[in-house]
Amino acid sequence: MGLAKSLSMSLIGKQIDGIYHTGICVYGKEYFYGNGINCENEGATPFGTPTETIELGETELPQEMFHDFLQDISERFTFLTYNIATNNCNHFTNECSTFLVDKTIPDFALKQAEEFFETPLGQMVKPMVMAQQNALIQGASSMFDTGSAENENKTLNVNPEAVLNTFSQLQGETPVAADLSDSITAISDISLLQESIITTPCLVLYLWSSVNEECKDSNTKIGEIAEKFSNDETSQVTFFSVNTQQVVEVAYNFNVKTIPCTYVYQNGEVVLTQEKFDPEELEQKLTELKKE
Q: Boundaries of each PPPDE domain copy (predicted)?
């Protein structure tokens, strides 16, 4: 929360105190929108211990009536209907609060995600945030059979740590990393990239961002490795790169957690994944593949 508060003004032009996930606590349970509508003991959800509790009021409605209400709205709060900006956990909590005590939740929680993702920075990091959601809801099971994470590869609630980690990686919108070596093919077409992964004997995919400080050094090192293997007539290695600031959907499709990162494919199969770029490990792996 502290990092978001300290950096938000300079990054998005307004101060935010945190990125919030909410649930509604009633009848001794905590109800929340994760893998569909979920119910756990208070404070025992995959999202951990609440940082703040806000009293909304008391309800005279019986739990059975509330469960009937949840059943009625369950089709609108499924794994497949989730929208990170307009239909997230906070919207679910708000509907529950309105039903139980005729009171909405505070705007700082209800409208924050939508406002953030309307900013230029929000648009840029949205795929990265979405790509890191599944870990939070692995332990949650829906109260109603309306579609689950097991049946569809789609992401869910806003992960506060994902946004904060992205804040710490981005140093502003001004490019700080140099362009890559000519030995590396820059690619922006995901379909072409996926086809190349399947058809190329050995492919190195390097994901970077022109606004990430770490890419200054890694761009130089990956360029040196690419030139070395490109000049080797016995090598069949092809190097591709994607600037995730320009092609943000790649971060979502490849479940990117950190930048820069590297993937090595041999005949369409992943043989090396580097969530943190390691030039020595990469060069060693390519040398091993060359000998095979």
A: 1-130
Q: Is the pTM value of this prediction over 0.90?
A: no
For the chain, the average pLDDT equals: 77
Over range 58-63, report the average pLDDT.
95
**CA–CA distance, 88 with 78 (Å, rounded to integer):** 10
Of residues 21, 25, 91, 215, which has the active-site annotation?
21
- The CATH number of the domain holding residue 269 is 3.40.30.10
- Domain extent, residue 31, equals 2-169
CATH of the domain at 110: 3.90.1720.30
pLDDT digit string (tens) for 245-255? 777 667 666 76
Annotated catalytic residue 21: yes
> Is the same domain home to 235 and 146?
no
Strand, helix or coil at 129?
A: helix
SS3 content of the chain, % helix, strand, coil (to 5): 40, 15, 45
Which stretch of DSSP H or E encloses residue 111?
A: none
Q: Which two tokens stand for residue 283?
A: 């060069």
Q: Is 91 a catalytic residue?
A: no
Q: In terms of Cα–Cα distance, which of 143, 156, 226, 220 is closest to 184?
A: 226
Among 25, 177, 19, smallest CA distance to 100 is for: 25
In the set 89, 96, 215, 261, the catalytic residue is 89
**pLDDT number for residue 155:** 33
How many domains does the chain divide into? Answer: 2
Q: Tell me: pLDDT of 285 over 60.
A: yes
